[in-house]
Design brief:
The protein has 14 helices and 13 strands. The chain has 470 residues and is α/β, with parallel strands linked by helices. The protein has 2 domains: 237 residues, NAD(P)-binding Rossmann-like Domain (Rossmann fold, 3-Layer(aba) Sandwich); 214 residues, 3-Layer(aba) Sandwich (Rossmann fold), CATH 3.40.50. It has an 8-stranded mixed sheet, sandwiched between helices. A 5-stranded parallel sheet has the order 10-9-11-12-13, with helices on one face. The longest helix is centred in the middle third of the chain and has 32 residues. It is elongated and about 75 Å long. The structure holds nicotinamide-adenine-dinucleotide. The site of nicotinamide-adenine-dinucleotide (NAD) has 26 residues, from helix 5.
Length: 470
């Protein structure tokens, strides 16, 4: 048990009445610079699991909390359910007792720091669905102890930490005043630190990505700074949790808007007979003032298609319309329709109707080399092709079988083998996700028609007459 925690146990009981101002904090913010803290991570998904393992590697004793009992069981058995997290990494931390998974949320009381990494999706009306954050805040409030640090990591609109999480936590009877006074008295610490994890990115690991942090008051900011300095090379403190929340949204809106821009220019270039990818590569030779973004079949993943709309929703409270976000969303959402239309035209040029054609989608994950299908444009393309009467199969080395999701149900559809005979049997093959393991020369050689949404076939020299860029 950590020194901090044993101190904590001596002078705390759950659900205390509001403390008087003369009561002292059981620990100072710099206590979070100590090793061997007990860190609880709520939500062991794409964000929470790598974060948990990073804290474990740094010498802390980490408990990964999750409401999904299958994930808890797998983790405790040393198994991984994320392709980019090797099971050995989990086993290593289990064996030195730096990591365990749990569905028993009462154990939150034993933690020094609690980090929230639960989903923040959009609901059916494309409005923020903060039910997971709310549920989590209630569970923490039931178990909150004086001196604990709570950090929200989930991506959300500016104001969530102060307006939503804080009031729920204060139902415990403990107080954490929003203040800029250095000497403010606070019973627990509350902070926001956006997660910038990029699953599958070989160049930047979690430890190398600077961590933006902010507290609702100065002691909270200090506490979160000390904690994260232990796991990343650079911590960037900002003045308020709203600033930190907005920082993450700016990053993702920047991507969404720039991707929409090149997607729109791609449509124009196609009409003008210009190769947009060649244009981008040549523009990218400028050493300043330009950053390349690439067109594609549409946006995917948990973040870029979702996060900007958290801000659009919040902006309405201020009578403000976020036009760039809406326009980018409109263009990006239209891309799967463009891919399907281009496929129909390419089939037509080969005297073939879409209705009754046999098509193969390559790659259903939302980006290359990951197994994550959330919001993947491949699913929309699959749906649209089926609606137009095509018989569609798919291949994805990382997604052996499709399952029911929020907007789609292709459950039972299994990834087909990628053989020369099979490729030749389809009227068309659509490259939707350009996994690195695909042999595009082989694919083009054996397919009759290739609709390439990623310029994945750029280095294929033979049979270019079969390729249509979409
Ligand atoms: N995936 C990314 O690349 C990425 C990158 C940066 C930020 N984010 C943000 O991080 C947050 C988490 O995203 P993710 O991709 O890790 O999601 P995820 O769906 O992979 O993982 C979330 C986990 O939380 C669990 N969970 C749900 N409700 C819970 C609850 N009440 N208590 C405990 N566990 C609960 C789920 O079972 C799941 O294991 C989101 O806000 C997302 O926008 C994600």
């Amino acid at each position: 048990m950590s020194r901090l925690h044993s101190r904590l146990q001596l002078d705390t009981t759950p659900m205390k009445p509001p403390p008087t101002t003369t009561e002292k904090l059981p620990r100072r913010p710099d206590a979070f610079a100590e090793r061997n803290l007990r860190v609880g991570i709520i939500g062991c998904g794409y964000v929470g699991l790598p974060l948990a393992l990073r804290f474990a590697e740094a010498g802390h004793r980490v408990t990964g909390f999750d409401t999904d009992p299958r994930k808890v069981a797998k983790l405790n058995a040393g198994q991984s359910y994320l392709r980019h997290i090797p099971a050995e990494k989990i086993q290593q931390q289990l064996s030195c007792e730096h990591f365990q998974a749990s569905g028993e949320f009462a154990q939150l009381r034993e933690m020094d720091a609690i980090l929230i990494c639960v989903p923040t999706p959009l609901d059916e009306r494309r409005e923020p669905d903060l039910c997971y954050v709310e549920q989590t805040a209630h569970v923490i409030a039931q178990n909150l102890q004086r001196g604990q640090l709570v950090v929200l990591e989930s991506t959300t609109y500016p104001g969530t930490t102060e307006e939503l999480v804080l009031p729920i936590l204060e139902r415990s009877g403990l107080r954490c005043p929003v203040s800029s006074a250095e000497d403010v008295t606070t019973d627990f610490y509350l902070a926001f630190s956006p997660e910038r994890e990029d699953p599958g990115n070989q160049q930047y690991s979690l430890a190398q990505i600077p961590k933006v942090v902010a507290g609702v008051n100065p002691p909270s900011r200090l506490a979160v700074e000390h904690l994260y300095r232990q796991i990343v090379t650079r911590v960037v403190p900002v003045s308020s949790t709203r600033t930190a929340e907005m920082t993450k949204l700016l990053e993702n809106i920047f991507r969404s808007v720039n991707i929409a821009l090149v997607n729109e220019l791609k449509l124009l270039c196609q009409r003008m007979g210009i190769n947009i990818w060649e244009v981008i590569e040549s523009a990218a030779t400028k050493p300043f003032g330009y950053m390349p973004f690439y067109p594609g079949p549409g946006l995917g993943g948990h973040c870029i298609p979702v996060d900007p709309f958290y801000l659009s929703w919040k902006a309405r409270e201020y009578d403000f319309t976020t036009r760039f976000i809406e326009l980018a969303g409109e263009i990006n959402v239209s891309m799967p329709y463009h891919v399907v239309e281009t496929t129909a035209q390419a089939l037509n040029a080969r005297h073939k109707a879409m209705n009754g054609s046999r098509l193969l989608i390559l790659g259903v994950a939302y980006k290359k080399d990951v197994d994550d299908m959330r919001e993947s444009p491949a699913l929309k393309i699959l749906q649209l092709l089926q609606q137009r009467g095509a018989q569609v199969d798919y291949n994805d080395p990382y997604v052996p079988e499709l399952y029911a999701m929020r907007h789609y149900d292709f459950s039972g559809l299994k990834s087909v083998e990628l053989t020369a005979e099979r490729l030749a049997g389809y009227d068309g093959v659509l490259i939707v996700t350009d996994h690195s393991c695909y042999d595009f020369a082989f694919i083009v050689r054996h397919a009759r028609l290739v609709v390439d949404t990623r310029n994945a076939t750029r280095n294929v020299a033979e049979h270019r007459e079969k390729i249509v860029l979409a």
